[in-house]
Write a structure and sequence with these properties.
By secondary structure, the protein is an all-beta fold. Helix content is 0%, strand content 56%. The protein has one domain. The strands form three sheets. A four-stranded antiparallel sheet has the order 1-4-5-8, with no helix packed on it. Strands 2-3 form a two-stranded antiparallel sheet. A hairpin with a 2-residue loop joins strand 4 and strand 5. It starts with a strand and ends with a strand.
């Protein structure tokens, strides 16, 4: 069995192309648990475990407008690999 806590990822404040708008900094935490059985690897991943709301990008749309792009919420995935 393998397990790992990806300690976390800190992303600092970022800015739009014109530096007129900024996003807040944020920290995300991910987990991974894996098993090996013969030729098979099975891995369970959980990203953004705390389901943090955050903005990954911001854009100046001109004319006083702008757009923000939200980051994905909690994501859980299962993967398998066959080694031969």
């Amino acid at each position: 069995m393998r397990n790992r806590v990806d300690g976390g990822r800190y992303i600092g404040t970022t800015y739009s192309d014109t530096n007129a708008l900024e996003t807040a900094s944020y920290t995300l935490f991910d987990l991974m648990l894996g098993f090996r059985a013969g030729a098979f690897d099975i891995q369970l991943n959980a990203n953004n475990v705390t389901d943090k709301d955050y903005t990954v990008a911001i854009s100046d749309a001109g004319l006083g407008g702008g757009a923000t792009y939200a980051g994905p919420g909690r994501y859980v995935g299962l993967s398998t690999t066959v080694n031969f």
